[in-house]
Automatic annotation (TrEMBL):
Residue stretches spanning the membrane: none
Entry-linked InterPro entries: Cupin_8, JmjC_dom
Name this polypeptide is given: Cupin-like domain-containing protein
Stored PANTHER family: HYPOXIA-INDUCIBLE FACTOR 1 ALPHA INHIBITOR-RELATED (PTHR12461), HYPOXIA-INDUCIBLE FACTOR 1-ALPHA INHIBITOR (PTHR12461:SF105)
Origin species: Actinomadura fibrosa
Length: 334
């Protein structure tokens, strides 16, 4: 037995609470150098433990909640166009909030960014001219760390914006460096001269909010792995195209959420042998083009990949309540 006994006992308890049959657990222990007598004794002891018995009552309540979510999932699939992300031309404020925001449904909004000077002005030369000497924060070394998103703070580097723009322009396809919302605190101030090129989306967002959005810039091939946010989000595409895969909040049980808001599943090449429950997840896909605005509802899992060098702005300052993090407590391993 290479693992300490207490580790195995935690493993036994977890698998019992997940509903795995005792005989299957015993067989797994025997395959891992337990004798048959010892395996039987350990599993019997766990079954008799008042702690495991109490945990089983909690697990049963959680299974009831998961059943409730599967009902929402099945009903959602029954909707006309339930398997696609709708595109709408400038829905009114009431339409957006009633049909999408309050119903936790994604939508791609077209025509809302027509007035943005950024959509015609922003390119690499413009960035170098306007704020090339400003110091910005960027994530590097992402391709050498499979948990690059979780470990994002370890990958931060400061550099002149001009040098980073040069890198993006000449990089080809790579996920090794990316300026993301995780770099926002410094970059919002460093790139403040660009904000005048963005008109407030006052139909849906709080125009008086100090939140000026989050600036994303990266080469083709940048990836943001499956995760969910604790707020509703707008993703406004300014340059280049992004491919997005989304899994509804009600399919969380299928996406192998192992830590905080992250999934173990690689959306670019799903390993269904390792993650068989992903076959049950509803995956909605779209390509977001310049001038389009994607609404990502709170709790929806999403994966994003740059098909070209891209610039994106994201926003969370909606006119309706959006502080869903206030009662979120599951930051630890699940």
């Amino acid at each position: 037995m290479t693992r300490p006994k207490d580790d195995w006992r935690r493993w036994i308890a977890e698998n019992l609470l997940l509903g795995n049959p005792p005989e299957v657990i015993r067989e797994a222990l025997v395959r891992n150098e337990f004798s048959e007598e010892e395996a039987a004794r350990e599993v019997a002891g766990a079954l008799a433990s008042p702690y495991v018995q109490g945990g089983s009552r909690i697990a049963n309540r959680l299974r009831k909640r998961e059943w409730t979510l599967t009902v929402y999932g099945r009903l959602s699939r029954m909707r006309a166009n339930g398997g696609t992300i709708e595109r709408r031309e400038r829905p009114s404020r009431d339409e957006f909030f009633e049909q999408y925001y309050f119903q936790n449904r994604p939508v791609i909004i077209t025509g809302m960014l027509k007035s943005w000077p950024a959509c015609t002005k922003w390119d690499f030369d413009y960035f170098r001219e306007r704020c090339g000497d400003r110091e910005v924060e960027v994530q590097f070394g992402r391709e050498s760390d499979e948990d690059y998103e979780i470990n994002g703070p370890k990958h931060k580097r400061l550099m002149p914006f001009r040098e980073y723009v040069d890198l993006v322009e000449s990089a080809g396809t790579t996920n090794d460096f990316y300026m993301t919302a995780n770099n926002a605190s410094r970059n919002r101030a460093a790139l403040d001269v660009l904000w005048s090129d963005i008109d407030p989306i006052t139909e849906y967002l709080d125009g008086d909010s100090p939140d000026k959005g989050f600036f994303w810039l990266g080469p083709a091939g940048t990836k943001t792995p499956y995760h969910h946010d604790l707020t509703n989000n707008f993703m406004a595409q300014v340059m280049g195209r992004k491919q997005i895969k989304m899994v509804p909040l009600h399919d969380t049980a299928y996406i192998y959420n192992h830590l905080h808001c992250y999934s173990e599943v690689d959306a670019s090449a799903v390993d269904y042998e390792r993650f068989p429950a992903m076959r049950k997840a509803q995956v909605l896909e779209c390509t977001l083009s310049p001038g389009e605005l994607l609404f990502i509802p709170v709790g929806w899992w999403h994966y994003v990949e740059g098909l070209d060098p891209t610039v994106t702005m994201s926003f969370t300052n909606f006119l309706r309540f959006n502080d869903f993090a206030e009662n979120y407590t599951t930051f630890q391993h699940l």
